[in-house]
Amino acid sequence: MTQKPAVDQELAPDVVAQPELTGKKTLGGRLASQRVWLGCIAGILALILLPMLSDLIFGGSSDFQLHHISLIGIFILAALAQNILTGYAAQPSLGNAAFFGVSAYVLTWLSSDLGQPYWIGILAAVVVSALLGLIVGTPALRISGAHLAVATLGLVTTVGALLNFWDTTAGRQNYDLSNLPDFLNDDRTLYYFIFAIVVCLLFLSYHLLHSRVGRAWIAIRDNETAAEAFGINLTKYKLQAFVISAAMTGLAGSLYATWATTASSSMSSADQTIAFLAMIVVGGLGSLTGSILGAIFVGFLPLLLGQLPSPMVIGSFQLQISTLITGIYGLLLLLVLIFFPSGLSSLGTQAGNWLQRKPSKGGTE
Amino acid sequence: MLKVEQLHVGYGSLEVLHGISFDVPEGAIVAILGSNGAGKTTLMRALSGLIPIKSGKIDFAGKAVGRLVAEKRLREGLALVPEGRDLFGSLTVRENLLMGAYTRRSRTEIEQDIERILERFPRLKTRLQAHAASLSGGEGQMLAIGRALMSHPRLLLLDEPSHGLAPIIVETVFEVIEQLNREEGLTIVLVEQNAHQALEVAHTAYILQSGSIVLNGEATTLTANSAVQELYMGG
Ligand SMILES: Nc1ncnc2c1ncn2[C@@H]1O[C@H](COP(=O)(O)OP(=O)(O)O)[C@@H](O)[C@H]1O
Ligand SMILES: [Mg+2]
């Protein structure tokens, strides 16, 4: 028995600077969780106040701005869904855009064509997406890596073509979503509606990811063999990720149709897929904050750039900004990936580390 | 406690283990020694159910487990400490321990076991919220063993626990193995290239060469065997 402490001390040479390190870890842990809470509260307050602020900042055209901010919320949901599947459960599936498109059509069909209540439409869209996730996920588990990515991308373009075919045979230019509840026709209440859902889902996701299920996903991602050795059913958890991700994307898709008051077959396209993928890569794989930052960057930046005055007059130059937007945007994307290869979310961690280190080093920096 | 008979295992059409038989009595430490590529890891994977066996028998505590999936074998009390530790790098030390208890449900029991394991490995206690990826080699090995203990095993399969560790750490790892055996009566199967250390703690040992067992006996006898000394202990 007396050997035990001895064993432990002998381990010490293997590790550098233990006492300070561990002391800081616990303090750091507490600070980190406080920061998370403060961040959440500040974020929610900001979301509540934003519509009033945007009145002050943008004046008369504020509804237009608010309308676009609502779009970020929808992209956050889609990015979150993609991140759960790819960043946490490590499934490089590109199929989410198919659920995004299908759910918009399900909602619009039920609401506009069949005159069903909006809520029934949303519910049906989410359920259909979840079922499709199950159907797609089952064979998807047998293929991996690049094969899975290409196969699911094929699904997206096929579904897009089918939806387009439906539009054509039905002889319609636009598939408009009518029959919306009144409050969703107002930009401000639509904004609150969307962000209430976003906040709820962020909260749920946080808990899911810190539960047995989330730990199982991360374990599978980190080391599939060890996960299996400890009794984690790989099939079950991967399938669960497919279904949850599809359902969440379905919600995002039906909200997008609500936002745009129309369903479009281009929602299930390779472009849309790339956008979802870019969001989580730019934001940070396996990070909730990353999903948010990525959605803002990829989803909103182009719109923001579109707001720049054009032509812009600098001295005697007249710059046709509008023709440069795609280029500027691409360049920014490139810069982010060069300077933050593990995503914008690492910015927070880096800043956090820096803040944490500063006091403990007694101002030697 | 563990009885392996005529075990054939391979990958696809490649056979790696050509009919292996050995016996592990309850409470024993049995070493299986072999050089790189002999099939040690393959054997450990086959025993824990991570790869299927082609033919042969694995009996554990009187039950045929050779065709059971990994989860069932873990529930029977057969736990693996994998080669290279295979920790869940982005989970914390605590979460890694929780993963070891994934097949168990009682929260209070699990918490008690974590306490017990941290008492055995106080080093881990100070690193509880650190990511497993940030652990040193020795700490990582302790965590890998702790994680396996969290499943309440009756038999521990250790795949090259000394691999990649500094000599002084190797010594402590082997001390821990001996302690677990002596204090908790845990039966242990130890696979090693490091024959010298392994034979010091093992009761009996088998020599594995190109997928076949070529020699076996008491650890002390094998230590004195000149062929073993020449092949595995650097003369
Ligand atoms: N996943 C695998 N697929 C195919 N062959 C493998 C695989 N893993 C190991 N082998 C082969 O099996 C043989 C034994 O390997 P292994 O069991 O890892 O040996 P050891 O652990 O004793 O070093 C080697 O020839 C190796 O190339
Ligand atoms: Mg090996």
UniProtKB/TrEMBL annotation, chain A:
InterPro entries given in the database record: ABC_transp_permease, LivM-like
Name of the protein this chain belongs to: Branched-chain amino acid ABC transporter permease
Gene encoding the protein: livM
GO CC annotation, single: plasma membrane
Any Pfam family matching the protein: BPD_transp_2
GO molecular function: branched-chain amino acid transmembrane transporter activity
Bilayer-crossing regions: 36-58, 64-81, 93-112, 118-136, 148-166, 190-209, 241-262, 274-305, 317-340
PANTHER family tied to this protein: HIGH-AFFINITY BRANCHED-CHAIN AMINO ACID TRANSPORT SYSTEM PERMEASE, HIGH-AFFINITY BRANCHED-CHAIN AMINO ACID TRANSPORT SYSTEM PERMEASE PROTEIN LIVM
Subcellular location, principal: membrane
Membrane topology, from the record: Multi-pass membrane protein
Subcellular location: Cell membrane
Annotated organism of origin: Dictyobacter vulcani
Keyword line: Cell membrane, Membrane, Transmembrane, Transmembrane helix
From TrEMBL, chain B:
Any GO molecular function: ATP binding
Keyword terms of this UniProt record: Amino-acid transport, ATP-binding, Nucleotide-binding, Transport
Domain ABC transporter: 2-235
BP GO annotations: L-amino acid transport
Family that this chain belongs to: Belongs to the ABC transporter superfamily.
Protein name listed in UniProt: ABC transporter ATP-binding protein
Organism: Dictyobacter vulcani
Upper classification of the organism: Bacteria, Bacillati, Chloroflexota, Ktedonobacteria, Ktedonobacterales
